[in-house]
Design a protein that fits this description.
Elements (H helix, E strand, L loop, with lengths): L2 H14 L5 H10 L7 H23 L7 H19 L19 H24 L6 H32 L4 H21 L2 H11 L1
Helix pairs in contact: 1-6, 2-4, 2-6, 2-7, 3-5, 4-5, 4-7
Pfam family, one: HupE_UreJ_2
Keywords: Membrane, Transmembrane, Transmembrane helix
Protein name: HupE/UreJ family protein
């Protein structure tokens, strides 16, 4: 296996690893309001997220920017919670006579901004892998491609489940969004409350 293939695989496994499910939750939260027919909107949204995390992944891995890892570990579940909560305000018509859906105009720029935060999280893992590598451009590119492939797999699975439940099973799209977003919001809130930095900040405010 070449070095490129090795880092591509590591990137793919990192974002799809159930043990580090925070990034998985975020991608699912992005897709929760959509079904297969919304593929153009999903493409724009995922592209915005990709641009964001690609920039900070590169800058942080090259040590051009540095942010405390504990701060990033707290910010990531906050981005998940905010995205899930935003889903509740996505307008899905109750009747099929009205086809227009309305979501917040902030959804796309926020996906870009949140991508910047997730990219810093990815960089922490990649830097730990690089060790004494003399050139990091190829590993950086391969790892990022692996992340994108893993991200696309997650999107595909979410849309496939949505297609089965909403399009075939006739589950109301609003219900699918509310249930999925509610579960994600609850899990994100749990991550925040159990975060060491959050507990430290709360403890300081209570003193």
């Amino acid at each position: 296996m070449s070095e490129f293939e090795a880092y591509l695989r590591l990137g793919f496994e990192h974002i799809t690893d159930p043990r580090g499910y925070d990034h998985i939750l975020f991608v699912i939260a992005l897709c929760a309001i959509y079904t297969v027919r919304d593929w153009k909107k999903i493409l724009i949204l995922v592209t915005a997220f990709t641009l964001g995390h690609s920039v900070t992944l590169a800058l942080a891995t090259l040590q051009i920017i540095q942010v405390r890892s504990d701060v990033i570990e707290l910010l990531i579940p906050i981005t998940i919670l905010l995205t899930a909560v935003m889903n509740f305000f996505h307008h899905i018509p109750k009747t099929t006579l009205v086809t227009e859906e309305k979501s917040s105009p902030l959804r796309y720029p926020l996906a870009l901004v949140f991508g910047l935060i997730h990219g810093l999280g990815f960089s922490n893992y990649l830097r730990s892998l690089l060790g004494g590598e003399s050139s990091i451009w190829q590993p950086l590119l391969a790892f990022n491609v692996g992340l994108e492939l893993g991200q696309l797999v997650i999107v595909f699975i979410v849309l496939l489940i949505a297609f089965g439940l909403v399009d075939l099973g006739r589950v109301p799209k609003r219900s699918w969004n509310y249930i999925l977003s509610g579960i994600i919001a609850g899990m994100a809130l749990s991550l925040i409350l159990n975060d060491e930095l959050f507990q430290e900040l709360v403890g300081m405010s209570n003193e």
